[in-house]
Amino acid sequence: MSKGTASPHPIDAPGTSERTWTTWPWLSAPPGTRAPAAGLSGLARVATAVIVAAHPDDEVLGVGGLMSMLATAGARLRLVAVTDGEGSHRGHADPGELARRRTAETTAALQALGAPAAEVVRLRLPDTGLADREDDLTAALAPLAEGFDICLAPWDRDMHSDHEAAGRAARRAAPGALYYYPIWMWHWARPADPRVPWDRALRVPLSPPAAAAKRAAIGYFTSQTRDRGHGLGPVLSPEMIAHFTRTNEVLIQ
Hints:
There is one protein chain. This protein is an alpha/beta fold. Helix content is about 35%, strand content about 15%. The chain is built from 10 helices and 7 strands. The strands form 2 sheets. The protein has a 5-stranded parallel sheet with strand order 3-2-1-4-5, sandwiched between helices. A two-stranded antiparallel sheet has the order 6-7. Helix 3 packs antiparallel against helix 8. It is globular and about 45 Å long.
């Protein structure tokens, strides 16, 4: 790096390969072999869950398998879609048309997860602008999360400003039953990375049907997985997608 050249943002820098992650014993060991890998205690007793997504596809990438298992168990699910993701092709697509496309992808993904009955609440806050609307988001989330057994939200240290704002708002709105799910952390972090609170992380094993349903659901987000043109490439590269097709998901308390 030449003098005066800023380092790339961690999301834009080369990421950690899935092979590196899957060879890490903490992530690959059978559930129960280490205390942090015990999974979500009392999952069978979760009857209601509210899931906060900063953008369409966040919820499927982060907790799609868990959502599928909860839906199969008959749990009531409420998805709070904070933005419609209209900013992912900035300058190269009509934002309104992209928002419609991405919300349709969510509908198809929920069907694939076996959760077509999930209630979807769209807040339509500005994509890439949540840091400036965090108080508004907190106020909106508080009544939407009230009475639910658990709240699942993007990690508030994910190094994506929208994810972090959504996570902070969820913490303020539902402090007693919150579990974070990381997204971009799998890209910029490394095994045992000291920036990640692994002592507060839980590994949730997915049933084979749930893992298969999640893979199918991810496939519906073609706006994110296919080349956007104009030299942009896909939002989610095959290597990035590989982080979310495991047989377990990770939550942070």
